[in-house]
Amino acid sequence: MRIRGLRKVYGGIAAVDGIDLDIRRGETFALLGPNGAGKSTTVEILEGYRSRTAGEVEVLGVDPARGGRDWKSRIGIVLQTGGETGLLTVREVLHHFAGLYPNPRRIDDVIAAVGLEAKANVRVAKLSGGQQRRVDVALGIVGRPELLFLDEPTTGFDPEARQQFWELIRSLKAEGTTILLTTHYLDEAARLADRAGVIAGGRLLDVGGIQEIGGAEARVPVVRWNDAEGRPHEVRTHEPGRVVASIVSALGGEPRALEVIRPTLEDVYLGLVRGAEAATATPDPPSGTAIATPAPTPDAEEPAA
Ligand SMILES: Nc1ncnc2c1ncn2[C@@H]1O[C@H](COP(=O)(O)OP(=O)(O)OP(=O)(O)O)[C@@H](O)[C@H]1O
């Protein structure tokens, strides 16, 4: 997947503001960003569901704006809100959609993969929200797609369903499926994705391996401990082992409440997004002002990481 200079403008406001991105075959890529960042707009352009204002896009070697039936049959989509008909049973709706693809998966395998065996013959309208979401996921994979788009797939899932979903994604990945995932669950992205991109205000703030995104400085571990009087201490260090050894030696024994904390993907993500917000922040308008003044866009400057 190749994206160059992608822009989407709604009523004079750029929801996607010049994105360049390559996603490799077989990788799982997480697109992360706050509400309104431009994730769904980007994904819907890649799916061929939304037109673009400018830029070049190639998905499985085809411009999605011109993707025909063959191209569509190679792609699986789980939209943010499912649109399946509630009057059919789970099995019927899957059967119907499987018929649209040249080489679909077995319906029973798909039902088992999303954990809906007990609900296979129940009308979709009668399922809980989380169960309906599982039907959305089932519809996304029934056509055995080469490329799977998952837009906030696990919203509404209980913890067990999420774990089961992660297993499903791992098995799809093992089969060679390319996956583009958007999610607000950073632990989900950290577990599933090979690489991630963080987007805010329609721009990519950073792209990189799930262990590298945000840069080395954002990932420096912190050692915390309490001294003999119970006072807390904290040191950021690239050498936590050495620091712990020196604390032990200085205290002459086990430090109390010792912790070595490595920043999570969530910490790194929040650092990136807050840094970008600070870079574009303008002073608050005087109170009582009813007219919203658009924030000036910084001059093609990369936001601070
Ligand atoms: N059809 C539309 N018409 C006008 N503006 C739109 C339209 N769709 C999206 N937008 C605007 O574009 C911006 C990006 O929206 P988008 O849905 O892509 O964000 P998102 O990153 O997917 O957010 P979320 O995490 O809330 O799903 C938002 O400011 C939104 O209000």
TrEMBL record:
**UniProt superkingdom:** Bacteria
Q: How does it sit in the membrane?
A: Peripheral membrane protein
Q: What is the protein named?
A: ABC transporter ATP-binding protein
Q: Name one GO molecular function term.
A: ATP binding
Query: CDD domains, alphabetically?
Result: ABC_DR_subfamily_A
Localized where?
Cell membrane
Q: Which UniProt keywords apply?
A: Antibiotic resistance, ATP-binding, Nucleotide-binding, Transport
Species per Swiss-Prot/TrEMBL record: Agromyces salentinus
Which residues are in the ABC transporter domain? 1-226
Which InterPro entries has this protein been placed in? AAA+_ATPase, ABC_transporter-like_ATP-bd, ABC_transporter-like_CS, ABC_transporter_ATP-binding, P-loop_NTPase
Location of the region described as Disordered in the Swiss-Prot/TrEMBL record:
279-305
The primary site where this protein sits is: membrane
